[in-house]
Structures are given as C-alpha cells and as structure tokens.
Amino acid sequence: MTAPSMAGPAIRVRGLEKSYGKLDVLRGVDFDVARGSIFALLGSNGAGKTTTVRILATLLKADAGTASVNGFDVATQPARTRESLSLTGQFAAVDGILSGRENLVLVARLRHLEDPGAVADELLRRFSLTEAGARRVSTYSGGMRRRLDIAMSLVGNSPVIFLDEPTAGLDPEARIEVWDAVRELARNGTTVLLTTQYLEEAEQLADRIAILRQGRIIVNGTLAELKRLFPPAQVEYVEKQPTLEEIFLAVVGGETSRAAGTTPEGHR
Question: What is the CATH number of domain 1-84+190-228?
Fold first, then answer.
C-alpha cells in the first residue's frame, strides 16, 4: 500500500479542465493548498467551484490536468484519495429523526470504527453540541445542523475536508457558529478547502484566497497580497457606523441575556 507524501501540499491542482458539451467550465486551473490551512475558492455561481471540488473528491473525472489530495492522485488512486478526505455539500446531510449523537454513532459504525459512542461524544464536545446531543436534529437551528454535518464529515479523522458553500442560506448567527467550527478544524491540523460566494467569509477564514472566474484562477494569494494589487488607500476621517450584522448580533445578544435574567453586560 502506497503511503502519501507528507512533504508536499495537502492539495495540488495543475491544468485542470472540464467541459460539458460546448460549455467550458474549467479551463486550466492551478493551485496548491498547504497542510493545516484554510484555502478559500471564491467565485460567483457558475464559476466552476463545485466542479473543482467534485473532481478532487473523485465524484467527477477531469478532461485534462492532474490533481492530488494528501499525496494521492485523484484519477489513478481514487480509493486512497477518498480515504483521505471528507466532503460537506451545500445542504446539511443529517437525519432529522435521529438525535445528534445517533447521527454520529451511525456514521462511526458505517466506517467500522471502534467505540462509536466515544467517537460521537468527542465530536459533540469539539463542536459545542454536547448539551443538544440527545435531542432530535429536527429541533436544531440551522447553525447547529451545519455544525453537526461538519462533525459527521470528520468521523474517522480525515486530514482534508471540502466545505462547499457551508453557510449558504444561514442567518448571521448561524454563519458565525460555522466560522468558529471551521477555525477549530484548522487549529486541529485539518486542511480545509472552502468554496464560497461570500467575500466576508473568505476574508474572515482563509489563509489564502483564490478567485475563480469563467473557469480560470485569476488571482491567488493571502488577503494582504491581494490588497497590494490595488493602490494604497487614502486616509480620510469617516464616522464609522455599525453594520447591519453588528446591530443584529448586538440586539439578539441583548435579548438572549435579558431572557437569562442579565443585561448584555452580564449584570443582574
């Protein structure tokens, strides 16, 4: 059995091409993702983000080019590639009838892991779902369902995870919950490839950002590097107003505190 190379990047893509009939979706995509980093693939609908992820996850064959995940070639070593990754799609794939813990135990059993209950309990702890673990998932908020979905993807400790539009359709609070979960993944050494349409999401989470447009990577770098592509900003005095998201979170946080019998500052 061939062991993966731990020296190179977790994900390497070179000259990836894919067409559907006369529609060229990918037209020579190149990028690397360092191990333990968060890499954001940014682009509008139809830019080729999901197609790229599907090729890397061995769900789709490229027309040309090469790609590897955890040192395994996705075309010639698909089984070893799949052992190295987890994929979370745009919609949470959880069973609403089961509890959160039961969902995790089920996946652990399907993967033939020892002590599925212990695996489930550890993931519930990592994703701050322990108190809700015994509840039916149908009672979970959108953010909780998404966090459980990501936790289920990590059963078996895959070194690489693909998150395809992980916060699509979520409210601001739920998005922040998912962001915290993604940061926790990277802190634990998991490599994350994140596709998103949300500029703020990439800015908040990613170590590197690549912008995909019409099937090609047009820029790729850290946020600081991308900012240097533009002329220096002029310094002007502007009265800063809170964003709608800041207002929403402040108001909701205040209501939550009052419901618990405290003010937003934590005093009775």
Answer: 3.40.50.300
